[in-house]
Amino acid sequence: MSVFIIAEAGVNHNGDVELAKELVDVAYNCGADAIKFQTFKAYESTGVFAKKAEYQKQNMPKEESQFDMIKKLELPFDEFREIKEYCDRKGIIFISTPDGIESLNFLVRLGVPLIKIGSTEVTNLEFLKTVGNTGKPIILSTGMSTLGEVEKALEVIYSTGNRKVKIMHCTTDYPTNIEDVNIRAMITMRAAFHVPTGFSDHTLGFESAIAAVALGAEFIEKHITLNRNMEGPDHKASMPPDEFKEYIIHIRNTEKLLGSGIKKPTEREKIIMKDVRRSIVAASDLKEGTIIKRDMLEFKRPGTGIKPELVDILVGRKLKRDLNKDEIILWKDI
Hints:
By secondary structure, the chain is of the alpha/beta class. The chain has two domains: 4-258, Aldolase class I (TIM Barrel), CATH 3.20.20.70; 267-333, Type Iii Antifreeze Protein Isoform Hplc 12. Helices cover 38% and strands 15% of the residues. It contains 13 helices and ten strands. The strands form two sheets. Strands 3-2-1-8-7-6-5-4 form an eight-stranded parallel β-sheet. A two-stranded antiparallel ribbon has the order 9-10. Strand 6 (165-170), helix 9 (184-193) and strand 7 (197-201) form a beta-alpha-beta unit. The longest helix is centred in the C-terminal third of the chain and has 18 residues, at 241-258. The chain is elongated. Residues 279-334 form the AFP-like domain. Pfam families: NeuB (PF03102), SAF (PF08666). Keywords: Transferase. GO terms for molecular function: N-acetylneuraminate synthase activity; N-acylneuraminate-9-phosphate synthase activity. It comes from Acidilutibacter cellobiosedens.
């Protein structure tokens, strides 16, 4: 099964629907399976006295509240409808993360194929229950969470009868330091909860995605941007188009490297083995009628004759023709 790649546009449209469509183009042209946004009304998620998160202060040093910052990044619901229609025309899946009940209800009406729950909502149990009640498939991000908190979140969703849940491991830091990625936590959650798992990558390089795919991630999410130097909280931890295209190539190549798991020679190996494997050959010149003894045989290249593992079958047989030293013995010769 191919890894499902989600291009996380998030709020990197900077509140401009046309920039959002450009991000759709980037995701599609780079080969992503889906593009994800964040659908919200600022008043649903953030109080007017909330301060910026540390990474937001670093990426956007301007003095303003978190509410004021988020308000500028808000898109009207009608524009999300426009973006989804654009995605449908392009042929890429539209996904979005709701940050409140109003946004959730809108996305359900819009007909999104699944609901992505952000890491900030893992302990927001009432909201999780509401999402579960939609009956939609769910991807639950688990940044900042303990294993126990993830377990409780799953229990709440399952209590609605909705068990169509996948878990996404991530570290809520933009960008994430390599030593904080802890991809093995994805394996831990897969073993603990027996659900499909994936990885939301907030690092700056390619290594984390390669490692996640190698460890069985079924889906990968990565922030994209038109330009890292744009103003906004997430641009600096996002990939511009050229890097994102290479990122996807790395993922697809990793899939190819992993292969099917069936141990068998490749078609090219089948050709090569004829030249480099060994066959049973005459250890010296042998005359027709000779009864073959073990010391009359050696194993040498090429591998176009009888395999060395069948040597005992030849011992005691009579030669039907003369053989020169190093000449390959064939079945028709005995």
